[in-house]
Amino acid sequence: MTRVIAVTNNKGGVGKTHTVFHLAGALAEQGKRVLLIDLDPQGNLTGLFFGTDVKQPGLYDVLVNDVPLHRAIHGTEFEQIAIVPSSKQLQHVDAVLQNEPDSQIRLADALQEKRAAQYQYDVVLFDCPPSVGVTTRNALAAANRVIIPIEADKFSVEGLDSLVQVFQTMKRAVNPRLEIAGILISLFNGRRAIERIYEETLRGRDLPIFDTKIKDSSKYREAITARKPITHYLPKSEHAEAFRALAQELEHAYAVH
């Protein structure tokens, strides 16, 4: 079974794109064929691979113009990683599809095409925008697991309940295969006592929490600037090991469900 994973949080600035990018590197390093789908109109993930070069067709064409998914897949300089790019047009998807009865399941349908992703890739990763609009709901309708990057702070922890309610609604009404793979504590310092308190709060809840924590480190930002996943930029670093550990935990999350 192809692992189809949505990386999402309706709060911005928690490291969703960084998580997708570096996790893709760790998975590719293991020999996995990885497809990234950029659902964020800001297109930061797309820009990491192509800069300002606009790649067409992209996800908007798949969701709105019925372009087959395989036509929107673009290779990257990393042999094992391909991407369906974003574009600014995605900011209009909610308005364009609001009256369409299949508005939430277009991406799931696209993945079912005979030439689509699950026939070519071991892992599909969705980089979701900081909202629970139509694009994010398409990701949740198509995914079988969710990773929630979160900071160990007041606003992130308090906002988690509403996000989990969205997942539960999608699971009940649209996608019964949807499970939370884990909460990923991101941008973690560890020297701040308040972070440790909120980490304990998170771990005391009835939700899966990854043991791996992603540090708030300039090394990840350097890798982003170099446009290389941390496993490729600093392969022997503790920062690369963190994403290798996350990839292993993710495998375990599939095994227990």
How would you describe this structure to a colleague?
The chain has helices at residues 16-29, 44-50, 59-64, 93-97, 106-111, 134-142, 154-158, 160-173, 193-203, 218-226, 230-233, 238-255; strands at 3-7, 34-38, 74-75, 81-84, 123-127, 145-150, 179-188, 209-215. By secondary structure, it is α/β, with parallel strands linked by helices. The chain has a single domain (3-255), classed as P-loop containing nucleotide triphosphate hydrolases (Rossmann fold, 3-Layer(aba) Sandwich). The longest helix has 18 residues, at 238-255. It is globular.
Q: Can you summarize this structure?
A:
The chain is α/β, with parallel strands linked by helices and 257 residues long. The protein has helices spanning 16-29, 44-50, 59-64, 93-97, 106-111, 134-142, 154-158, 160-173, 193-203, 218-226, 230-233, 238-255; strands at residues 3-7, 34-38, 74-75, 81-84, 123-127, 145-150, 179-188, 209-215. Helix 1 packs across helix 12 (238-255).
CATH superfamily: P-loop containing nucleotide triphosphate hydrolases
Structural class: alpha/beta
Strand arrangement, major sheet: 3-4-2-5-1-6-7-8
Order of helices and strands: EHEHHEEHHEHEHHEHEHHH
Low-confidence stretches: none
Q: Report the sheet with the most strands, covering strand number, pairing sense and barrel closure.
A: 8 strands, mixed
- Rg from alpha-carbon coordinates: 17 Å
Measured distance between first and last alpha carbons: 13 Å
Q: If classified by CATH, what would the architecture be? A: 3-Layer(aba) Sandwich
Counting DSSP H or I runs of 4 or more residues, the number of helices is: 12
CATH topology-level fold name:
Rossmann fold
CATH class placement: Alpha Beta
* Total of domains: 1
